[in-house]
């Protein structure tokens, strides 16, 4: 059976989606290629086609290996729901009240390393839902990633079923339209988000980012060395307003990196606050 | 000194903590030893974030000049300041050794102990530069200092320390434990011979437990090819 590499890639994408629900659009071909190369080398496959037949003809062992490779960077809307719920219900209301008292109606968030955009859109939904006097506010979310490729996908605002799996149904109905290729976000959400490229390790880049009330950088630091983590976390500290919050992934911590933040425990999650 | 340097030194006194922090970071990037006194002063800044930036900058500049300016902080009552000093001296590495050897002669047992603890971490591979100074403290009146001297020698792993350790097998129990442990870390035939010379019957049950495990580790080190 003759198949060129594009066809084989398409079949592999289909195989992954069939087995995991993860939809890897053509935009993720580069990421998929890198991971396939690693698995091909590990399994001794000499061509993509040979590797594909290994996936379909043998037991699930190699398919599971590939799935492990693929899922590392997979993200979805409302990821780590309890933390977001804590942000929405415990952190945000008193923070908003304090701002209202000062007649300060600006709210600025940063979704650092936003990947394909699931986090900034989630944050936009939360702000729409939780700020009862929303029209009074000047809300802005900066969503950045080092990868220019993913930013194009972010701006498009179309998500597959897998990305939507934890999105509560009322929010799906309210903020998304079902289209052929997935779920299209409401333009009202997009209008508050500014996508751009940022390298968290670039000091000049980081210093341009100031006056954020909240910074979200979840499940990113785990891929950095400790020295780099320290630099990145210091950058977040400087980017926050006094009293602003940093949210990290549940397995990440600033404890070993800096003592500058105060730790706030909210039910089951931790938030790091820049002293007011 | 350049205008840039002067401006950054001035900014270390800015009322805006972020400006102070950036100034500290940028002074580090200049690698200018002339900035060291001002950065050491910034380690006392009221804002933790500025202090940490000053510590990082001092480490980036590195060298003996940094160690010399930072070492006096080991004597401070302020625990945070002492910890920053320890962090800088450790991260500066072997270039701190001369300053730490001098600190081994401090009148303060705390400073002697800090110096030994840091030496144990930075002098591995270049123990010759501080071996005598560290070994001399095996006989310190303060058992915490003497124990730290043994621990430091153990961490350095230099077999030239074995005879010095052998001379302190009969010290106070805490020092004994540290000496046994140090010998096991150094390992080798001589260390094993020293450990086997210990009169085991004289040891308390607790010390005996440590002795047994140290002996086992040392025997294994000898068996290893």
Describe the structure.
In chain A, the strands form 2 sheets. In chain A, strands 6-2-1-7-8-10-9 form a 7-stranded mixed beta sheet. Chain A has a 3-stranded antiparallel beta sheet with strand order 3-5-4. Chain A is globular and about 70 Å long. Chain A folds into 2 domains: 5-71, Orthogonal Bundle (Chemotaxis Receptor Methyltransferase Cher, domain 1), CATH 1.10.155.10; 81-273, Vaccinia Virus protein VP39 (Rossmann fold, 3-Layer(aba) Sandwich). Chain A has helices at residues 5-20, 29-43, 48-57, 60-71, 81-101, 118-130, 148-156, 169-175, 187-190, 203-207, 226-239; strands at residues 106-112, 138-145, 158-159, 176-179, 182-185, 193-197, 212-217, 240-248, 262-266, 269-273. Chain A is α/β, with parallel strands linked by helices and 276 residues long. Chain A is built from 11 helices and 10 strands. In chain A, a hairpin with a 2-residue loop joins β4 (176-179) and β5. Chain B is mostly helical and 225 residues long. Chain B folds into 2 domains: 1-103, Alpha Horseshoe (Leucine-rich Repeat Variant), CATH 1.25.10; 127-225, Leucine-rich Repeat Variant. In chain B, 68% of the residues lie in helices and 0% in strands. Chain B has helices at residues 3-11, 17-30, 36-42, 48-61, 63-70, 79-92, 97-103, 109-122, 131-136, 143-156, 162-166, 173-186, 189-196, 205-223. In chain B, α7 (97-103) runs antiparallel to α8 (109-122). Chain B is elongated, with a radius of gyration of 21 Å. Chain B starts with a helix and ends with a helix.
């Amino acid at each position: 059976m003759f198949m060129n590499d594009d066809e084989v890639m398409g079949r592999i994408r289909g195989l992954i989606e069939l087995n995991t629900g993860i939809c890897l659009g053509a935009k993720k071909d580069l990421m998929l290629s890198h991971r396939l190369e690693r698995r091909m080398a590990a399994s001794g496959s000499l061509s993509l086609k040979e590797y594909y037949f290994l996936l379909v003809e043998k037991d699930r062992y190699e398919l599971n290996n590939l799935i492990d490779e693929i899922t590392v960077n997979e993200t979805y809307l409302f990821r780590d729901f309890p933390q977001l719920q804590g942000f929405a219900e415990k952190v945000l209301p008193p923070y908003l009240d304090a701002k209202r008292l000062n007649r300060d109606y600006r709210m600025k968030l940063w979704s650092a390393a936003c990947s394909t955009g699931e986090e900034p859109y989630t944050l936009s939904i939360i702000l729409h839902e939780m700020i009862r006097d929303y029209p009074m506010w000047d809300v802005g979310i900066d969503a950045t990633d080092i990868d220019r490729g993913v930013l194009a996908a972010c701006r498009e605002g179309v998500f597959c079923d897998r990305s939507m799996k934890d999105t509560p149904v009322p929010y799906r109905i309210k903020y998304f339209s079902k289209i052929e290729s997935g779920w299209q976000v409401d333009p009202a959400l997009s209008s508050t988000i500014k996508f751009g490229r940022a390298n968290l390790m670039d000091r000049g880049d980081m210093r341009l980012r100031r006056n954020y009330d909240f910074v979200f950088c979840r499940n990113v630091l785990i891929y950095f060395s400790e020295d780099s983590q320290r630099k990145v976390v210091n950058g977040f500290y400087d980017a926050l307003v006094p009293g602003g919050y940093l949210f990290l992934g549940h397995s990440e911590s600033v404890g070993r990196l800096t003592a500058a933040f105060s730790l706030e425990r909210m039910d089951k999650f931790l938030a790091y606050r820049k002293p007011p | 000194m350049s205008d840039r340097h002067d401006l950054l030194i001035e900014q270390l006194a800015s009322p805006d903590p972020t400006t102070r922090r950036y100034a500290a970071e940028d002074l580090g990037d200049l690698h200018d030893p002339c900035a060291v006194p001002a950065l050491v002063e910034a380690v006392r800044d009221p804002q933790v974030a500025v202090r940490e930036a000053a510590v990082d900058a001092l480490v980036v500049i590195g060298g003996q000049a940094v160690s010399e300016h930072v070492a006096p902080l080991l004597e401070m009552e302020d625990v945070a300041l002492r910890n920053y000093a320890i962090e800088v001296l450790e991260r500066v590495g072997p270039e701190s050794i001369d300053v730490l050897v001098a600190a081994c002669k401090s009148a303060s047992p705390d400073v002697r102990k800090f110096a030994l603890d840091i030496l144990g971490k930075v002098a591995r591979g270049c123990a010759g530069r501080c071996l005598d100074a560290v070994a001399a403290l095996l006989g310190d009146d303060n058992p915490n200092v003497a124990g730290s001297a043994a621990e430091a020698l153990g961490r350095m792993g230099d077999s030239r320390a074995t005879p010095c350790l052998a001379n302190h097998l009969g010290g106070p129990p805490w020092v004994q434990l540290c000496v046994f442990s140090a010998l096991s870390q150094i390992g080798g035939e001589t260390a094993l011979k020293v450990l086997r010379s210990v009169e085991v019957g004289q040891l308390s049950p607790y010390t005996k437990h440590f002795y047994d495990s140290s002996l086992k580790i040392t025997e294994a080190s000898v068996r290893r090819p």
